[in-house]
Amino acid sequence: MSISERAMFGGIAFMCNGNMAVGIVRTRLMVRVGRDRWQEALLEPHVTEMDFTGRSMRGFMYVMPEGLVGGGLKTWVETGIRFAASLPPK
After folding, report:
1. Alpha carbons 24 and 14: distance in angstroms, whole number
2. Is the distance from CB of 80 to CB of 63 less than 8 angstroms?
3. How far is CA 47 from CA 17, 23, 44, 53, 84, in A?
4. 3-state secondary structure of 8
5. Any bridge partners for residue 24, and if so which?
């Protein structure tokens, strides 16, 4: 597995095999969960839709800083990496 970083969405994104997994935009963690898990993930506390372009980006979400404490950061980063690793490498 190859992890790299890239400027994206006005912040920094971490890529897994060339696919965006997670990133930081201002004070929020951006997580790619995929379309299949997206609506379920939005039910989690401190999670909002990612609407960088002014409309919802299905499969991506923001986790507010409050959702990153007590193991939250590790859980969300692992979620993003797991999804990105499931995609074909770029």
Report:
1. 9
2. no
3. 25, 14, 6, 18, 19
4. strand
5. 12, 29
* d(C-alpha 81, C-alpha 84), whole Å: 5
- 57, 49 Cβ separation under 8 angstroms: yes
What b/e sequence results for 10-34 when a residue is b if at least 16 CB atoms lie within 10 Å of its CB, and e otherwise? Answer: eeebbbbbebbbbbebeebbbbbbb
Q: What is the DSSP string of 67-79?
A: GGTTTHHHHHHHH
Taking the whole predicted model, whether its pTM rises above 0.70 is answered as yes
Q: Could you give the domains of the chain?
A: 3-85 (3.90.1150.30)
pLDDT in tens, 67-82: 999 999 999 999 999 9
